[in-house]
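User: Run a structure prediction on this.
Assistant: Running it now.
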Amino acid sequence: MGKKAIRYAVVDAFTAEPFKGNPAAVCLLEEEGAAADEQWMQSVAAEFNLSDTAFLVRDSSRPAGAAPRFHLRWFTPVTEVDLCGHATLASAHFLFTTLLAEHGMVEFMTRSGILTAKKVTTAEGEQGKLFIELDFPMDSFVGCSTADDMPLIPKTLNGASVISVHKTTAVGDLIVPSLLIFLVAFMITSDSQLCHFKMNHDGATTTVIIFLS
């Protein structure tokens, strides 16, 4: 039996202009059972073929007066991930502009804990725009060696000098301060100070976050 029709949207995060920013698909599932069908969600994410697709299911057990809460999961076209910032922002925007227009905050139950999103006061001259503040869990990091943890980093950065490499303790993302000036492969603009990308090594996908100095 096929799935019921679902509401979905593609949201460009981190921008106020169409066709810019970082796009993510957001799917609102009406049935809690649908959120358990990982194969189906993975297929949907592959069909969207965006960096991340978010799936939302409302938590019906919340008491009256409490902030609305949704179960939230993120899928790339090939796998489920523990955390995705821009897809969470896209999910909050989708909810605040549809179901939760009268609410100022929403909570998300995720594999990385409870995340919150709230509307913030519009700056002068920015009337009509929706600004959202996300509250994410903090993560500590430890030093690591490019030789031991990710030997492909220098090659991936096209030979740019790497100052140091650190790894987050929770999910193993790599933090890489670099003297990089220009990186064509990842289309970094001249005023960018941070970029991130995913790379595969020994069958595992790792997020690499680069600080430019």
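The chain has two domains: 7-135, 141-212.
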